Amino acid sequence: DTAVSQTPKYLVTQMGNDKSIKCEQNLGHDTMYWYKQDSKKFLKIMFSYNNKELIINETVPNRFSPKSPDKAHLNLHINSLELGDSAVYFCASSQQGPGANVLTFGAGSRLTVL
Amino acid sequence: AQSVTQPDIHITVSEGASLELRCNYSYGATPYLFWYVQSPGQGLQLLLKYFSGDTLVQGIKGFEAEFKRSQSSFNLRKPSVHWSDAAEYFCAVPDNYGQNFVFGPGTRLSVLP
What we know:
The complex is a heterodimer.
Chain A: E1 4-7, E2 10-13, E3 19-25, E4 31-37, E5 43-50, E6 53-57, E7 64-70, E8 73-78, E9 87-94, E10 104-105, E11 109-113
Parallel strand pairs in A: 2-11
Antiparallel strand pairs in A: 1-3, 3-8, 4-5, 4-9, 5-6, 7-8, 9-10, 9-11
Chain B: E1 3-5, E2 10-14, E3 19-21, E4 24-26, E5 33-38, E6 44-50, E7 56-58, E8 64-68, E9 73-78, E10 87-94, E11 101-103, E12 107-112
Parallel strand pairs in B: 2-12
Antiparallel strand pairs in B: 1-4, 3-9, 5-6, 5-10, 7-8, 8-9, 10-11, 10-12
């Protein structure tokens, strides 16, 4: 069984559309994250959720909204997509907060906005 | 704020050669330190971590890293590189508030046959 699974793996869409990326973890972890990886491979935290509560929210546009129906899921919804949103989005989880715990990553979702 | 630097953007080594990837961090106290590897088209996988104790830590795939407090470094090493080690390598630390991981910009490793 895949520990952290994301769907879809590839997503191609037009500017202005709304899209969602789903993430599920079966590790029983308490905290889940969304990272954005740009074309230069730089990883930027977007959101993290701990027990369904948003604990950090970096300076991302409010077009991006995380949704966590339960501890095992953290979905990413994006409104009014822009060209600059093209990137690989990674979901990850950790047992508690990041202090001494390791991240388990999903395989990534490559979003291309045309 | 925490920061992590990886001075080498791209390194090329021959298969069988030794490897050292550099990582420097800024942190007030002794940090927790991590190395992750990202193979092409894949997510990141933990290679090894340092929490405390022995400053030389062993990881998966024959990698090791050494924590040097005096140099604020946590360099990754491997004595003999295999072609399958070609990937992107990231050093990471938790931020000051323990709410997030801060990743370095990554080092891309290419392996020549």
